Amino acid sequence: SDKSSLAPDLYITTDKLIIRGDIGKGHFGAVKVGECKIMGSFVPCAVKNLTGSDIETNKNDLLKEAKLMQQFDHPYIVRLLAICDAMESSGSLMLVMELAPLGSLKDFLSQHNEKSFPEERLLVLMNQVCDGMAYLSGKNIVHRDLAARNILLVTENFAKISDFGMSRIFLESDNYYKASQPGTWPLRWYAPEALLYYKFTSKGEIWSFGVTLWEVFSYGSRPYSGLKGREILAMLEGGKRLECPCGCSPGVYTIMLQCWAYDPEDRPTFNDLLLQFKVFIVFVVR
Ligand code: ADP
């Protein structure tokens, strides 16, 4: 069964979990803040709860998400702390994650500007996201929902990638994940080959990273605002791209344009970008 491939020591009983208020609204239900007892002491956590209708279908999705997350061990990826299966008693299944107290990068940045949170600080955070994405691509995983809303902040200088609800692992030999049909997809973040052929590769993830960079340097603006999915694809096929965000340095915009090369082979890898960020951070921050 699904449960068997999850590490048994991840399962905790409800008495090890204290749940407090809501911190976010998720796809399946509310995300709550709380504390979870791990190795004898309570640590702050975020709890993704599964309740209400459609429990059986969503349960499998949530378990799949947990199974992926349990394989990760990286500073810039949200850690799974535990699973609490209270289906028998309270009818809920809970995914317990480490807490990122400052919430999503998108919400955080929409309350800031170039003065209050300058470019060099954005670069530090996006370098961390790039590092986390390099780790995922090395594990043949496509996140498929990389966007500023899914980057969470532990502190103002410490970002983590979250929300593995759409993530998939692909075979080394295939080099890509093929979706059978489009669902409720974050189209604005997707590369042309994902939109056209439902093909997801690490080179497509780089495209999404570029869109996320654009969001971040636009302090939380919506990409292609006012355009519909079909219009976006037409624009991209016509060779047009999102414009340079106001105040964003040409060097950073050049990275975005590299990420948005139409041919996936012409895009950089996350490791290529890490080197570029290193240079930026040395010369811009110091
Ligand atoms: P879904 O996949 O159902 O959309 P998310 O994983 O994106 O759910 O979580 C929804 C919201 O809950 C996020 O936007 C964020 O505000 C909050 N949240 C999720 N995980 C955490 C966490 N580990 N720490 C802090 N807040 C979180």
From TrEMBL:
ATP binds at residue 48. Residues 17-281 form the Protein kinase domain. Belongs to the protein kinase superfamily. Tyr protein kinase family. This is Tyrosine-protein kinase. It comes from Ciona intestinalis.
